[in-house]
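Deliverable D4.2, example record:
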Amino acid sequence: MQTAIKRIIFFAAIIAFWEIGSRLELWHPLIFPSLSSVFSALVEGFQDKTLIYDLIASFKRLAVGLAISLVIGTLIGVLLGKSKTADETLGAVILALQSVPSIVWLPIAIMWFGLNEKAVIFVTILGGTFVMALNMRTGIKNVSPLYIKAAQTMGANGIDLFTRVIFPASIPYVVTGSRLAWAFAWRALMAGELLSTGPGLGYTLRYASDFGRMDIVIGVMIIIGAIGMIVDQFIFQRIEKSVIKKWGLES
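Output generated by the structure prediction step:
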């Protein structure tokens, strides 16, 4: 309750300073428009359904890209966790690629697929795959040897050992990896859509910037940030806390 009150006071102060500062012309409205102007632009965008189409298009790309990245990342992570050779070779490459910003992949994506939907989804997939793979690998590596020895004593081996002991024990890392993969994929999607042909939030952001519509630019930025915060805090963070508590990692 106290946290909610603090956040309300904090954001109310920011909103008040923003609007009052704009009305007192502390900054040029073309560079940083007032909150009321941004709100009006957002209302206009939803009324003419432009932003609705953008949201639908962005979420479709995200759903495809994130789903593929989670599957590929999990498989790579399992390989790295189970094979020392793969971990020492492919693992080093994955670790290096993880540090490469998603927007850097755009020129390659455009060269390979053209300026189309496939290029955007490709960048989105890369955004989530590597972080998911590394978390899956860490989860498998951190499974207690006592669990494995106990299961082997009871006759569990091979696939049976993995599905009954190793993978279930890695679930907290899988959830954390999924949460991070979502965040990285969402950022990668916005970067990819900046050079897309639309619709999409990233495309509208660039389009508005080209025509000097800073009210729309800031409005879309607020939407992107709000979606990221809502999905992370109200979906992934709650799932993560529930799993951690269930696995006895938190009192």
